[in-house]
Design goal:
Elements (H helix, E strand, L loop, with lengths): L1 H8 L5 H12 L5 H14 L3 H14 L2 H26 L15 H4 L5 H15 L2 H13 L4 H28 L1
Helix pairs in contact: 1-2, 1-4, 2-9, 3-4, 3-5, 3-7, 3-9, 5-7, 7-8, 7-9
Keywords: Antioxidant, Disulfide bond, Oxidoreductase, Peroxidase, Redox-active center
GO molecular function: disulfide oxidoreductase activity; hydroperoxide reductase activity; peroxiredoxin activity
Protein name: Alkyl hydroperoxide reductase AhpD
């Protein structure tokens, strides 16, 4: 199992990450599609080759072709949107907030899977990318759709653990060079 491979690669000083990784994926109460779509989108967003290489095959095996593509689409569109909206929010000139984005985001309206799943994946990626505006937007859509806070927090936990595992493993690989 790729998850076991990834856990075994985590150094002893990061034992908490190893335990958390097993917990957020192995003991998740999310439905299979929400879980593995979140894992795949976050593995991509983590920018860690090791995390993506180890988790992608299992995600692919647990997702339909449509869900697999949608999770990758969530990571892609949020990579763009998180930079754009975070920057627009951080600029001190409020005029930028009134200007039209002018960026194509059609996949958000028609992701090819349940809207709630795509929104959850987008929220998790936005957590990794640190965009407060996108986090608020996706959280509000999810809450209006009846998604409970526990489910939202579960996706955020997956995002935080995969990001930390990726950062740790990539740093160790660099130090070993």
């Amino acid at each position: 199992m790729a998850l076991d491979e990834l856990k075994s690669a985590i150094p002893d000083f990061a034992k908490d990450l190893k335990l958390n990784l097993g917990s957020v994926i192995g003991n998740s109460e999310l439905p299979k599609q929400q879980l593995w779509g979140t894992v795949l989108a976050c593995a991509i967003a983590s920018r860690s080759p090791k995390v993506l290489r180890e988790l992608e095959p299992e995600a692919k095996a647990n997702l339909s072709d449509e869900a697999y593509t949608a999770a990758k689409s969530a990571a892609a569109i949020m990579a763009m949107n998180n930079v754009f909206y975070r920057t627009r929010h951080l600029l001190s000139d409020p005029e930028y907030g009134t200007m039209r984005a002018g960026l194509r985001m059609n996949v958000i309206g028609n992701p090819g899977v349940e809207k709630v799943d795509f929104e959850l994946w987008s929220l998790a990626v936005s957590a990794i990318n640190g965009c407060g505006m996108c986090l608020d937007s996706h959280e509000q859509v999810l809450r209006k759709a009846g998604v409970d806070r526990e489910t939202i927090l579960e996706a955020i936990k997956i995002a935080s653990v995969l990001q930390a595992v990726g950062a740790t493993l990539d740093a160790e690989a660099t130090l070993a060079e």
